[in-house]
Amino acid sequence: MKKLRKLVVVFGLCFFLAGAFLNSGFFKQKQDEAYAQLKEKYQITTEVAEVQDELEPEIIEEPEATETENVEVQEVSEVKTTKEETKVDNRTTENIIWDFLKNSGYTDIQTAAIIGNLYQESGLKSSSVEHGTGEGIGIAQWSFGRKNQLKNYAASKGVEWTNLNAQLEFLVKELKSSQFYEPYKSTFANPYSINEAVEAYCFGFERPNRAKANLSYREKMAWQAYYRNVDR
Predict the structure, then answer these.
(1) Is 193 a domain residue?
(2) Is residue 119 situated within a structural domain?
(3) Which among 50, 65, 85 is the end of a domain?
(4) Tens digits of per-residue pLDDT, 142-172?
């Protein structure tokens, strides 16, 4: 019982001394010093009560635009209007080739057959160069003498051989020439199906190794091109 009383007295005395210390000038001095260090470290220049005033937005009146500035604004508006009125060609490469061949007089079946073959040859990439040998170039993978003829034709038009329109013009030029071997040329002129047109173009014009022709892929891509474009 006596020990318990002693503990109570000791705790009470400690509590009293702690309170006296916290309220002492020494503690307040240390507190002020610590706060001063924080203000210096974080560059605090205002008290909390003043922060609200600093957060108030400053209203700045814009000066009236001069005559020169008004002209510049008007010119920008005219440029925007012109851009909005500009027609954008959203056609894919396949669409462009389809339209070009159709405008050159080829039927839907013939056009689809040509595009199906071009997918196998180059993926319709006008800048395509044959993998490995580097010999074949362009959408139809022209090689050897025909490659040189394509380059000369493009140069005569003032463009690089990678130009798609130049390649399409050269392609149609060749299709109407002796480069298209018989009897495939006659078959291609009047095919009864897309598959027949694909085969005629493949072996009469592209003339790949028959074992590596991948004819089924050419036919598949021709049918897909047909359905994507025939009613476009």
Answers:
(1) yes
(2) yes
(3) 50
(4) 999 999 999 999 999 999 999 999 999 999 9
